[in-house]
Design a protein that fits this description.
Length: 991
C-alpha cells in the first residue's frame, strides 16, 4: 500500500456528501456549538491559498467539538450580491446572476473563461460544512427576508425611555393623544412641536412626512461618497486614499436623497455590548473609536448678519464641544465646507474663494480628511457669529478638517487649548478674519496650545475665572441653559448609515412611491424580484440602472410588478430605483443558517431558541467598522422586536491573519526607443551597476543600427509584476513563457546575470490576482493533497498573525503524512498489531492528546502540527505499531488531516466516520515519571549517569551510589567529605 492522497480524499469527500456526515440537527439532545466563517464573495478569480486559512481553523475547531460530543453547526454560503459582478456585467454584457452562478458552481462563462467554482474548491479542501443549509444572498428566497427586515425597520422607532425599538403604531398612538412634546425618541434634529389636535388634523401625507423623521429607516438628503466612475454611492470602507477601492475611480462628496439606517439610535448599546463579548481588544477599540462617545455641551451662536431679523427667523450655528469651559477662549469658528449655512453667511467678496475651496474639498473623502493632520487649509467666509456671553463678533471660516457628518459640522475654535485650532490660527495669522489668539489659561501658550484638563485655573473668562475644568464645565452649561443657547449633551461620532446604492446587483427595496412618499409592500407579496434590464449603467438622465427596467412599477390592485409605462399614480405607482448595499444581506445571515429552508420566516422561534447565537466567529479584522458593527446593530434591533434571542450575535471572534504572497518582478529599462523592451536581471537592478548596463545597452542599440547612442543618458527602470507560476524555486524566470504572456514582450531582450540566467526580484505583498502572486489551493491539493494543505496552513504560524506563503515547506509536511502512514501500513498492507503498548508509547500518545486539546482550545493550531511531527518521530523510533496507540492517534489528528484519518480508521476495521468518535481522554498518569536518570558528579564534574526510582529517600540513594562500581573506581579508596543529594535532580560527591 502507498499513500495516495488524491484517491483517498476523493473517496472520503464522496462519503461525507452521500452520508450527510456533517448535517446538524435543530433538535438534538447534544449540547449545541455554532461555528461560523465570514462567508465569501464569489469572484471569478476563485480561491487562493490565503482564503482558506480561517476556514481551516474553524474546521479544525468544528471537528474537535464534534469529537467532544457537541451538535455542531458549521455552515457555509455566499455573499453573492455586490459591485464586482455588476462591473463585470457592464464590461461583458453578461447577466450578473449568470456569472455569479458560474463563479459558485463552476463551469465556463460566456466569455469562454473556465471557472473552477467556489463550491468545488471548498469541497476539495475537505471542510465539514453542513451544505444542506447553504445560503446565497442574491437568491430571492433569501433576500425576501432581507426585504422583510427592512420593512420592520421602517415600521419602527426608537423609544429612549424604554431604550429599545418599538412599533411605529405606538408612536402614532402617542401623537394622537398627547402630541409630540413629551416624546423621548431618537429622531431628526429640529422637529417642530405639535399637539394631539394638530396631529389629528394633519393630512395623511403630512403625518407620513413627520413619521419619516422618527422611523429607524428613513429618506433624507445626505452627504454621500459619490463615485461617478462606478455610478454609485460608496461606504467609507470602500474608499482608499480618496478613490474607490474597486477600480480606483475618483470619489466626491455630494448631497443626495438616500435611504438611511438610524444606527445612531443604538450607539450606547453598541458601545456597552463590547463589554460582554470575547473579541480581541484591537477590534473592540476600533468600534469604540468609530462610535466615538464624547461628553460635553451644545452651544448655539447667533449668525451676526441676521441679528436684525425677528427671533423666529434668527439662525444659529450649533456646535458640540467637549470643552465648554473654554468658551471665553473662542477666537474664530470653523464650518465644514458642506455646512448648509455656508452659502447663507458667505459675503459677496468671499464667494468666489469659498466656492473654489468647496469644489476642491468635495474630491476628498471623509476618511482622507480625518487622516490628514498635517495639511492646513481653509477660507474665511466674510461672515460672523455672536458670542453668547460677550456678544463680540466671531469670524466664521470653513475648513476641511471639520466634517459635516461629525457633531454639528461646526466647531468653536479655541486655539489656546487645541493644537489643531492653534496651528490653524497661526497659519492664517494676520489675514482678514483671523483674530489674535485669546489665552484663558494661567499658562504660557507662546509655543503651543495647552490642552490638559487639569493643572490650571481659568482667567479672562468672566464668571468662570478661577475655576478648573470640572467646575467650569458645570457652571457654563448652567448659564447657557439660562439664556437658552446651549445644554449638556452626550455626542457620538457614529453617523446614520446610508442604505442606498445606485446600482443593479443588490436587493430591491420593497418600496413604491405615492406622491413622492414611500409606501411598504405588504410582506405577503415578497420577494420583489430584480427585473431584467438591457444595460446595467445609469439611464441617460442619470437615474440608477433600475431606471432602464421596462417592468418596474407596482400595481396596488393586483399586488404585482407591472410595466413601467402603466404608471398612473392612482393604482399603479413607481418602484424604488435604488438597491440595498452589500451589507444588507450579511447583517443577518447567521440566523438564516439556523433554519435555511423556512419559507415563511427568516428562522423559526424554535430554531432561534436552540442555536441562540454564534459561539465562534472567524474572519478578517478589516470588517471591524463595517459588517461587524452593522450586524450587531441588526441583531439588537431584531432582539428588540422579539425575533433574535440574544443581544449580541457573536460570542467569540477570532481574526485570522493574512497569508501574504511572494511576488516576482522583472525590471524593464526605461528611456530606450525604437527597439523591443529590454529587461535587466535583479542582481543588476539591486547593484545599480549602470556602467555595465550602459555598455550592454550600447551593444543592443548597435545591433539594431540605431545611431546617436553615444551620449550618456539617464537610465531608469520600472519593476513589473510577473506571474509567479513561470518562476522556478531558484527564482529563475521561464523566458519562453514570459515572452508569450503578452504580445509586446514577444521580442523582448534580456540582460542576464553572469550565469546567463534571468533572476527575478522578490517581495512579500498581499496575495492578489493583480499582483500575479496568487497560488491556488487546487494546485497544492492536486500535487500534495488537501490534508497537506490543511496542515501546512496551520503550521505557518499563529492564526492571528500575517505570514508569507512559501511553498518550500510543503514537501516536508507531505513527508510527515507519509511517515504517519508507515506506522499503519507498508507496501504489503496493514502492519498494526494488538501488542500491548509500552510506557514510552503511551507517554508519546498522551503527551500529544494533552497538547493538541490545549492548542485547539487556545487556537494555537501551529504548535499542534509540531506536536504531531514529534509524536510520529517518537513512535517511529519506538517501532510502535500497536492498535492501542494508533487508533486514538488517528482521532487526535482527524481535525487537522481528516481524509487520512478516515482512511486509517477504516483500515483499522472500524465502520462509519471517524468524525463523531469521542476524543481520546488524556490520562496524566502516563506522563508521570517513575524513575529519574541522575547525573552523578564528583567535585562538580559529571562522570556517569544512573537510573533510580523517584520514590527513594536520600539515604537509600546514597547507599546505592556508594556501592556502585563506578563510584568506587572514581574514589580510589578515598572517603568523600560530603555527599550532596537532591532527590529527582542531582547527586554530587565532594572531596
Amino acid at each position: 500500500m502507498k499513500y495516495n492522497p488524491n484517491e483517498i480524499e476523493a473517496k472520503w469527500q464522496k462519503y461525507w456528501l452521500e452520508n450527510e456526515t456533517f448535517k446538524a440537527e435543530n433538535n438534538s439532545e447534544k449540547p449545541k456549538y455554532y461555528v461560523l466563517d465570514m462567508f465569501p464573495y464569489p469572484s471569478g478569480a476563485g480561491l487562493h491559498v490565503g482564503h482558506p486559512l480561517g476556514y481551516i481553523a474553524s474546521d479544525v475547531y468544528s471537528r474537535y467539538k464534534r469529537h467532544q460530543g457537541f451538535n455542531v453547526l458549521h455552515p457555509m454560503g455566499y455573499d453573492s450580491f455586490g459591485l464586482p459582478a455588476e462591473q463585470y456585467a457592464i464590461q461583458t454584457g453578461q447577466r450578473p446572476e449568470d456569472t455569479t452562478s458560474v463563479n459558485i458552481d463552476g463551469g465556463t462563462d460566456k466569455e469562454g473563461n473556465k471557472i473552477a467554482g467556489y463550491r468545488k474548491q471548498l469541497d476539495k479542501i475537505g471542510f465539514s460544512f453542513d451544505w444542506s443549509r447553504e445560503v446565497r444572498t442574491s437568491n430571492p428566497d433569501y433576500y425576501k427576508h432581507t426585504q422583510w427586515i427592512f420593512i420592520q425597520l421602517f415600521n419602527s422607532w426608537y423609544n429612549k425611555n424604554s431604550d429599545k425599538a418599538e412599533d411605529i403604531s405606538t408612536l402614532v398612538s402617542i401623537f394622537s393623544t398627547e402630541g409630540n412634546a413629551n416624546v423621548n425618541a431618537v429622531c431628526d434634529e429640529n422637529i417642530e412641536a405639535f399637539s394631539a389636535n394638530e396631529w389629528n388634523a394633519f393630512a395623511k401625507e403630512q403625518q407620513e412626512r413627520i413619521l419619516l423623521q422618527y422611523r429607524l429607516t428613513y429618506l433624507a438628503e445626505t452627504e454621500v461618497n459619490w463615485c461617478p466612475g462606478l455610478g454609485t454611492v460608496l461606504a467609507n470602507d470602500e474608499i482608499v486614499n480618496g478613490v474607490s477601492e474597486r477600480g480606483g475611480f475618483t470619489v466626491v462628496r455630494k448631497k443626495m436623497t438616500q435611504w438611511s439606517m438610524r444606527i445612531s439610535a443604538y450607539a450606547e448599546r453598541l458601545l456597552q455590548g463590547l463589554n460582554d463579548i470575547d473579541w480581541s481588544e484591537s477590534i473592540k477599540e476600533s468600534q469604540r473609536n468609530w462610535i466615538g462617545k464624547s461628553v460635553g455641551a451644545t452651544v448655539s451662536f447667533k449668525v451676526e448678519s441676521q441679528k436684525s431679523n425677528a427671533e423666529s427667523e434668527q439662525q444659529y450655528i450649533d456646535v458640540f464641544t467637549t470643552r465648554p469651559d473654554t468658551i471665553f477662549g473662542v477666537t474664530f469658528m470653523t464650518l465644514a465646507p458642506e455646512h448648509e449655512l455656508v452659502s447663507q453667511i458667505t459675503t459677496t467678496e468671499q464667494k468666489a474663494e469659498v466656492e473654489a475651496y468647496i469644489e476642491k474639498t468635495s474630491k476628498r473623502s471623509e476618511r482622507e480628511r480625518m487622516a490628514d493632520v498635517k495639511t492646513i487649509s481653509g477660507v474665511f467666509t466674510g461672515g460672523y457669529a455672536e458670542h453668547p456671553f460677550t456678544k463680540e463678533p466671531i469670524p466664521v471660516w470653513i475648513g476641511d478638517y471639520v466634517l459635516a457628518g461629525y457633531g454639528t459640522g461646526a466647531v468653536m475654535a479655541v486655539p489656546c487649548g487645541d493644537e489643531r485650532d492653534y496651528a490653524f490660527a497661526n497659519f492664517f495669522k494676520g489675514k482678514q478674519g483671523m483674530s489674535d489668539i485669546k489665552n484663558i489659561f494661567d499658562k504660557d501658550i507662546s509655543e503651543a496650545a495647552f490642552g490638559a484638563k487639569e493643572g490650571f485655573q481659568l482667567v479672562d473668562s468672566d464668571f468662570l475665572n478661577g475655576l478648573d475644568y470640572k467646575k467650569g464645565t458645570q457652571k457654563v452649561i448652567a448659564e447657557l441653559e439660562k439664556i437658552n443657547q446651549g445644554k449638556g449633551k452626550i455626542n457620538y461620532r457614529l453617523r446614520d448609515a446610508v442604505f442606498s446604492r445606485q446600482r443593479y446587483w443588490g436587493e430591491p427595496f420593497p418600496v413604491y412611491y405615492v406622491n413622492g412618499l414611500p409606501q411598504m409592500i405588504d410582506a405577503q407579496h415578497l420577494p420583489i424580484i430584480l427585473p431584467e434590464v438591457e444595460k446595467y449603467l445609469p439611464t441617460e438622465d442619470g437615474l440608477p440602472p433600475l431606471g432602464n427596467a421596462l417592468v418596474w412599477a407596482w400595481n396596488t390592485e393586483t399586488n404585482s410588478v407591472v410595466n413601467t409605462d402603466l404608471v398612473d399614480n392612482k393604482t399603479i405607482f413607481p418602484l424604488e430605483l435604488n438597491t440595498m448595499p452589500g451589507w444588507a444581506g450579511s447583517s443577518w445571515y447567521w440566523m438564516r443558517y439556523m433554519d435555511a429552508h423556512n419559507e415563511n420566516e427568516f428562522a423559526s422561534k424554535d430554531a432561534l431558541a436552540y442555536w441562540e447565537s454564534v459561539d465562534l466567529y472567524i474572519g478578517g479584522s478589516e470588517h471591524a467598522t463595517g459588517h461587524l458593527l452593522y450586524s450587531r446593530f441588526w441583531n439588537k434591533f431584531l432582539k428588540d422586536k422579539g425575533f433574535a434571542p440574544t443581544e449580541e450575535p457573536f460570542k467569540k471572534l477570532i481574526n485570522q491573519g493574512m497569508i501574504l504572497g511572494m511576488s516576482a518582478f522583472v525590471y524593464r529599462v526605461l528611456g530606450t526607443m525604437g527597439i523591443p523592451p529590454i529587461f535587466i536581471t535583479s542582481s543588476l537592478y539591486k547593484s545599480n551597476n549602470l556602467d555595465f548596463v550602459y555598455s550592454e545597452l550600447t551593444k543592443i542599440h548597435q545591433q539594431f543600427n540605431i545611431d546617436g547612442f553615444n551620449e550618456r543618458f539617464t537610465i531608469g527602470f520600472s519593476p513589473i509584476h510577473v506571474d509567479v507560476s513561470i518562476v522556478n524555486s531558484s527564482d529563475e524566470l521561464d523566458l519562453e513563457k514570459f515572452t508569450k504572456s503578452r504580445d509586446e514582450y514577444k521580442n523582448a531582450i534580456f540582460i542576464n546575470d553572469e550565469n546567463g540566467k534571468y533572476i527575478v526580484g522578490r517581495e512579500i505583498e498581499k496575495m492578489s490576482k493583480s499582483k500575479y502572486n496568487v497560488v491556488t489551493p487546487d494546485d497544492i491539493c492536486n500535487e500534495y493533497g488537501a490534508d497537506t494543505l490543511r496542515l501546512y496552513e496551520m503550521f505557518l504560524g499563529p492564526l492571528e498573525q500575517a505570514k508569507p506563503w512559501n511553498t518550500a515547506g510543503i514537501s516536508g509536511v507531505f513527508g510527515f503524512l507519509k511517515k504517519l502512514c508507515r506506522l499503519y501500513f507498508d507496501d504489503n498492507g496493514l502492519i498494526v498489531t494488538n501488542d500491548a503498548p509500552t510506557k514510552d508509547n503511551l507517554k508519546s500518545l498522551h503527551k500529544t492528546i494533552k497538547k493538541v486539546a490545549e492548542d485547539i482550545e487556545g487556537f494555537s493550531f501551529n504548535t499542534s502540527v509540531s506536536q504531531f511531527m514529534i509524536c510520529v518521530n517518537e513512535l517511529s523510533t519506538q517501532n510502535c505499531h500497536s492498535r492501542a496507540i494508533l487508533e486514538p492517534l488517528a482521532i487526535v489528528i482527524s481535525p487537522y488531516a481528516p481524509h487520512i484519518a478516515e482512511e486509517l480508521w477504516s483500515l483499522l476495521g472500524n465502520t462509519g466516520s471517524i468524525a463523531t468518535v469521542d476524543f481520546p481522554i488524556f490520562e496524566p498518569a502516563h506522563l508521570v515519571e517513575s524513575s529519574k536518570e541522575y547525573p552523578v558528579s564528583f567535585n562538580g564534574k559529571m562522570r556517569f549517569t544512573m537510573v533510580l526510582p523517584l520514590d527513594l529517600t536520600k539515604e537509600q540513594i546514597e547507599e546505592i551510589v556508594m556501592k556502585d562500581e563506578r563510584t568506587i573506581k572514581q574514589l580510589e579508596g578515598k572517603t568523600p567529605n560530603k555527599v550532596i543529594i537532591v532527590p529527582g535532580k542531582i547527586i554530587n560527591l565532594v572531596g
